[in-house]
Request: fold
Amino acid sequence: MRLPQAFWLLWFGQACNRIGTLAPAFLVLYLEQGKLVNSQTTPVIVGLFGAGVVASGLIGGGVADAIGPRRTIVFAQPAAAATALAFLTTHNVNLLCLLSLLTGFLSAVDRPAGAGLIAKIVPKEDFSKAYSLYMVGFNVGMSLGPVLSGFLLSWYPPALFVVWALCACVYALLVCALPADEPRRAAGPSESSVLRNAARGVVEPFRSRLMLGFLALTFLMACVYLQVNSTLPLGMRDQGLGPGEIGMVLAVNAVLSVVLLPLVPRITRGMADVLPLMLSSGFIAVGFGLNFLAHGVPTFIVTTVIWTIGEVLWTTVSADFVAKRAPAGRVSTYQGSFFFAWNAAFVAGGPVGIALAAACGYTTLWIAALALGLAVTLGFTLLTRIPGFHPADRAPADVPADATASATAAEHTAAPAPAGHAPSH
Reply:
């Protein structure tokens, strides 16, 4: 598959950035190891980091469509580098809390912009393939990041933030080499106008019945899937698995994701839009639900394989679904609303799952996850009844007037080179 050189620059940039980005768990380990926070402050640090990530989806998408996705990434990464290095200069708890909020925001603000850039620099029919490859890079970075962080934390803890800053700067430099965002109008909007456009963009997806339904189902399904970060390790420990065995089970997910993601576009080619959504949510529901039968490493590996298949399907088909239904000039905004719904489930789903397991046991939790996941699967079939589910059915009125001019310019800017001239990897 031939993709523009600009795509591969973006791919390497975001993969490098994910390798260097410090996960909240290692941030907490650094702060506790240095005795910078106590047990009462740790949950606040984690909560603020999560709040920053949740806000980044909405704000990042709106800003990317207002000023351009390339500009958004280029401006955000130096700020991320400066914020990371600021951790080395303060021991004040209040400032550490503020930095945690900022780093959570800056660590994820590029994701809607990245999806918007892909929609601009690759042909529309290749979006699904390109996004699958993009997520391979993301997963590689997210898999290698904790390994690097663990080494740096034991060798020289301040290096965690130096590497984070360097990776952010590399990302910015690579994105600088991408085609420029379309120029603003000659008169140039004022800063207040840009902010107003961004604010309008943030709420626009929630005014669409179709997107609102899709985002609600996304939130509910993410509440099931994101148990992987909370109750799943605890449930495995409850069944007698040690830390090494838990790590081995979760490593299956990381390896399988990298292997399967490039295959998804080929597998889903020709399927009706609703079928991949149903398959992905069904696999996730069954995979997590069957955990109530798992009692050792082999059975937990089987359930992990099942929900991982759902995860890799969802990663690509959800982004493709949103990109196809975003009005012209609003791809980043719509992707941002999707990231918001997903990350909001991280804040809500984990605590609810832990509380349910503590009150009723893990068997009840996994059966509830199965029921909720299957309900989401059924919900996707109901989405087909909402006007606009099929992109060809969208009326021209669905495209905002203020987006038309910029979209037209973007189409000319992002038009692929003639066959035989497009640079390839």
Summary: Residues 152 and 160 are 6 Å apart (CA to CA). The chain has a mean pLDDT of 85.
